């Protein structure tokens, strides 16, 4: 394999640039020509494909976002779109792909591989950590630390005003960000999609806190919680508890997607980028590179998008014990 | 004056603890006994008043929130409530007060002074910077930097996805936070209460940007804007521009109130705390300490709450020029 | 076991407070009385032992340092000293200990256990990550991120002035912090104790960089490197390269020990604190709790202090490839 | 004036990029062509001069360092060098200059102006805040906050170990950074060049602290202090106090020069950049733009480099009172 291309797709995640850098520098090291596809599958269809070299990725390891940009592509969901994409790659002589992204990215990559057989290896880039086949995804550690920084700030106010704050964090269908924020943020309670917590349980926890003179409390709500998002949950609680408590709601929102990547994310991204590249060069295809128990592993795209990675029961238990 | 008390009231602001520390240490330096009233006017009514000394305020200069806590007090709005408060102070032998807070705090302080003549000097503590009588208030610089940090993160995503972000910042009726965030955050446009910006102007600015291949844009919206908050404004823009743009909205919310105070806020808070204390000891009363053009000044409470401090036209003009 | 005590010893590390909190809350959860020993073995000898409860550890999860303080104790190295310490524990009815610290702490704990048989379980708290029996130690992730933040800042200057910076990071005899900083900081070269890098190799790397028009470079030097610390190494390089390069040296120093713990460190500290406590209650003794491959494990003190945990060769290789 | 150029010179400072951006965008707004000179006077001599437009300065407002790079130029100190520089400017048709830098930059600018009469206006860019003609310089606020963040971290360790830390901050011949860090960092003592503090006074302050059971202390030492730098001062203190205290020394070093600029620095830099540009276009020459008491002012280069801006006595007094 002498010519490959890399692209980012789906929601951006901090560390994607560190991953691109590792792929480009790794390709240079192995004497392989490397191209960047701009705006994911969209750019593939339009042929927006640029040469990259070691210099192109200087001084990007610490930047959030992705220098290759990202976009949704409806056209790639059609077979005409994918044919165009393939034609562009063929014209440029691209023999292999590294795809950085999440669920949607790999769903597209699998279909494309089945149709055109261009070897593709994925690197898991999403803040949600909802991909099977890796302990952690690129961007997750940064997102958790960003959310945590916000929670620390909010606790100052909660504490000064004896308030209860419901803080909604991201994570789509997964409670990973919420659980980590719950433990690290010293939350009194946690509401995540994996584990239905009835509103009544939250009421009990808050009441127990009052009984112990705990004047302020923080409840972390994952955006995908079955009881509804933070605003809705807070409303239900208010209906049940009335004037006893002074409730505020904050939805952390898009700040969780950006920012300077943490050391952990830069190292993980570098390792996964290099792992994806070297896997591709060794003949891996239709798989995602991941790190499980500190070992580099490759998991079929199909499994990464269909299998569910459970949130550790141990961690959920810790929130209960530590808010004692 | 041999015995004074300090309290915080209204919304908490980063630097309030640095201010409390300066008052307590300053009192120790001047040989004056100092008490802390817990939860503002509420604690005054209940007699929740504790002795403070130099040790009590060790290691708090860097903490957000307020160690004396804050609360709304409906009872203090009644003359019975204020009588109780006065009785408590008299019983404890408190001869003077330092009040740290904003509009509401000083409104209460003025009424109380007029009724009971206990000398009171204020220190302006609010992130909104909406008080006449000081260039800046305690907490403003930290709030702006917190919002800016969030804006920097969001720009990573805006840029990666070619999106337009409407970001709502705090400030109540004042556009101070928004203006500073607009300049420092490199925003394309600004919507503040002081300066009606029609939605059509925003549409023009965004269209001009597209014409210049500017793929992402940030619009800062002050929470008090006449055109409605960020969600409403964004909806109006979307109706006018349709599918041309990919809009996202983020309301920064309560993170702007907390956090480690910046150097500027710690120094300003220390200076204002000491200034309020030393003013009180020298005979000032019914006034707020402020810093205007680097000079310590005292302004009657009445003026601080009734006069309007305008946002600098120069700064508003800068947003236009710098987004060229 | 109905009454236990916890203490911190050796250099402080961010996350120690989160660990103390987990032990205290865990003890409350399991109905066990818990005490805190102030200033490590020193406080044990002097009987400086205080009761702790859930409230005592409120709002400390985010604080650097250790609320139980830490100190060196020469007296504990004598058998008279240890006898006094034992007498104090006996008098208070302490039946088990949780020790948070590093090498020196566990060396003392092992001797003490062998003499007096008080069950002791350790939690690894040191920024150096030099303990066998756990993948990571409490404080390591924060120290790496602190060093990385400094490296990012220094790169701004290195880049603006076309300079080469030698940056010395902590880690005692271990290159863990240096390796992670090397990868995450995008360093051109790395000098660590585990892996002798001759000064001539650094000269080659820098010369290669110049040949590729790389105008600035960063070399990370672990404090324990055999070629000497950063100042000495830089001097040797300067002698060999002369006026070709503009070299600066920075020793990051004590900032690496403090600061708000990262999410990773708070969660690891909580998990290890709870793991140490629950191990102790289940009958573990003379062992350190650790996390290897996401599993809680217990390793004899003797092994933790005598066996060497190697730095991953994969990581060292990554620095070479990524600086291509 | 239809064609101007901008350059940065001397030590880099956070906010220089925001200043460049304001000059370039301001020039676009006023319909003036603008060039960037790379590596200061060096690039002027070599003709390393590039066209800039609004797009060139996108997304740099938040970056530390300077995109135009900086360098010392020995050749510019010779009249042959300056003649070459002038020839280059003439050839390119440059009619005016904006110089961003400090003392050395403006010394060069004044000589150059006197010889060749090319109108030049300066913007004060240096972390040291040692320029007469402006209350604050670009980069100062960021440097203080960076140093303060380090001091906060070190206090965690100082407090945990009952230690005295001597922390050396930058500032060349000026104590500005030190004074602000002293107040905001809650230091026990301060040693600055403007105000000789004998070592014996520091000994007294530390002894008084011990008498009040203050177990840890922080002394801020400006790099230019007459009693010698932090290492030397600490040694003298140790000789006088012996084993009574556990002293550590940290020199913060180059981290103070880099990093993401604060809101204050971005706004000040934008204002001064625009002010310098618009001054130049209106006919100002041989002056530096500054902000004094919130007003834009222009001060002759000669005064900015020869007159001394004193550190406020009020601030120095505050360190004493607040460490009570």
What does the model show?
4 copies of one chain form a homotetramer. Chain A is α/β, with parallel strands linked by helices and 324 residues long. Chain A has 2 domains: 3-139 and 261-306, Rossmann fold; 142-257, Rossmann fold, CATH 3.40.50.460. The first copy, chain A, is 44% helix and 18% strand. Chain A has 11 helices and 11 strands. Chain A has helices at 16-29, 40-46, 79-92, 103-116, 140-161, 176-184, 199-211, 230-241, 263-282, 301-306, 313-322; strands at residues 3-8, 33-37, 49-52, 96-101, 120-124, 164-169, 189-191, 217-222, 247-251, 287-292, 295-300. A 7-stranded mixed β-sheet of chain A has the order 3-2-1-4-5-10-11, with helices on both faces. In chain A, strand 7, helix 7 (199-211) and strand 8 (217-222) form a beta-alpha-beta unit. In chain A, helix 1 (16-29) crosses helix 9 (263-282), helix 2 packs across helix 3 and helix 6 (176-184) runs parallel beside helix 11 (313-322). Chain A is elongated and about 70 Å long. In chain A, 59% of the residues are buried.
What is the level-2 CATH architecture name of the largest domain in chain A?
3-Layer(aba) Sandwich
Strand content of chain A: 15-25%
Shape of chain A: elongated
Name the chain pair with the biggest interface and residue counts per chain.
A-C, 48 and 48 residues
> What is the succession of H and E elements of chain A?
EHEHEHEHEHEHEHEHEHEEHH
Strand order in the sheet with the most strands of chain A: 3-2-1-4-5-10-11
Largest sheet of chain A: 7 strands, mixed
Radius of gyration of chain A: 22 Å
């Amino acid at each position: 394999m002498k010519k490959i291309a890399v692209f980012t797709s789906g929601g951006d995640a901090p560390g994607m640039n560190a991953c691109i850098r590792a792929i480009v520098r790794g390709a240079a090291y192995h004497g392989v020509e490397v191209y960047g596809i701009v705006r994911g599958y969209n750019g593939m269809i339009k042929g927006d494909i640029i040469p990259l070299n070691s210099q192109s990725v200087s001084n990007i390891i610490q930047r959030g976002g992705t220098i290759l940009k990202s976009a949704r592509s409806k056209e790639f969901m059609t077979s005409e779109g994918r044919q165009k994409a393939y034609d562009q790659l063929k014209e440029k002589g691209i023999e292999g792909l590294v795809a950085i992204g999440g669920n949607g990215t790999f769903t597209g990559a699998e279909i494309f591989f089945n149709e055109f057989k261009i070897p593709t290896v994925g690197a898991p880039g999403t803040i949600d950590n909802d991909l099977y086949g890796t302990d952690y995804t690129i961007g997750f550690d940064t997102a958790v630390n960003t959310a945590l920084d916000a929670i620390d700030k909010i606790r100052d106010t909660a504490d000064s005003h004896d308030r209860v704050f419901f803080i909604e964090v991201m994570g789509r269908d997964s409670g990973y960000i919420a659980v980590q924020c719950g433990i690290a943020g010293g939350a009194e309670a946690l509401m995540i999609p994996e584990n239905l917590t009835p509103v009544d349980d939250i009421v009990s926890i808050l009441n127990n806190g009052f009984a112990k003179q705990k004047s302020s409390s923080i409840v972390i709500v994952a955006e995908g919680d079955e009881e509804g998002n933070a605003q809705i949950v807070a409303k239900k609680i208010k209906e049940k508890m009335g004037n006893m408590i002074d409730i505020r709601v904050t939805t952390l929102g898009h700040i969780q997607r950006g920012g300077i990547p943490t050391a952990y994310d830069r190292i993980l991204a570098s390792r996964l980028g290099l792992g994806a590249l070297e896997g591709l060069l060794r003949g891996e295809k239709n798989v995602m590179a991941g790190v499980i128990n500190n070992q580099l592993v490759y998991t079929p795209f199909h499994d990464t998008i269909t299998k569910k990675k459970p949130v550790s029961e141990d961690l959920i238990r810790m929130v209960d014990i530590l808010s004692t």
